[in-house]
Amino acid sequence: MSERFAGRVVVVTGGASPIGFGIAARLAREGATLVLGDLDSDRLQAAADELGAAAHAGDLSRRETAEALISLAGRPDVLINCAGGGVILPTPAHTEETLRATIDRNLWTTLYCTLAALPLMARAGYGRIVNIGAESVRNGLYRHAVYNAAKGGVHAFATGLAREYAEHGITVNTVAPAWITTPEADARLAAAPEAERRDMAGFFDRIRATIPMRRPGTVAEVAAAVAFVASEEASYLTGQTISVNGGSSML
Ligand SMILES: NC(=O)c1ccc[n+]([C@@H]2O[C@H](COP(=O)([O-])OP(=O)(O)OC[C@H]3O[C@@H](n4cnc5c(N)ncnc54)[C@H](O)[C@@H]3O)[C@@H](O)[C@H]2O)c1
Question: Residue 205 class from Cβ within 10 Å (0-12 exposed, 13-18 middle, 19+ buried)?
């Protein structure tokens, strides 16, 4: 494998998540020096130990935590905003708590980490910011309206910011996965009560119907796209949403 990230400091938020860890592992294999952030301190430490990364645990929807993470990185070359996660419910079933959690996890983490990293990248005249968005923003996936409100903000932030920093050596893009299977999600579902498994099977059938390849994507497929967008060679790519979606946006 090439060493596209040799000498580069890469911050991955949500580094304890299956996708965040997969991205971090991919970039580590390409030579990155990693700094991981996540709310889940135990899983974060395990991920950092496995990858030889530095880590900062805490709630990145709080500005001081985001600043502490970026300051641990010193001078970040790459920021992958992967902290997030859906509270996937029919819209009227959301509570005040789930509404706020959805926006906090996805949008505020991205805003605060990006705002902390930008001045450092601007001073260095180099930066790659990659937001992990969601294909559901584009296709209006069933039960995803509130999640889409949060991830839609993440997509929109990237396009606006890309224009502001286009002449400063900083690119800002979104990689938008569709339905990605992870061993963790499979195990959670296998342990769920029968009624929930039936409900989810119907839900997955609906999602599958939107994907021409008729299968979920893998963490490795997301990580491969992120690695390109985050690399130096993606120098003319900014303000874009790259869908990793098995063709699901094709009519
Ligand atoms: N799995 C999918 O099908 C899919 C599809 C599209 C997008 N995504 C996005 O990919 C990313 C990773 O998702 P995943 O499926 O691997 O697992 P996940 O949804 O469990 O990952 C979310 C991670 O973010 C962390 N996090 C949440 N709020 C945080 C906060 N306030 N501060 C710090 N960390 C916080 C969680 O602890 C967790 O490790 C998420 O942004 C998710 O929205 C996932």
Answer: exposed
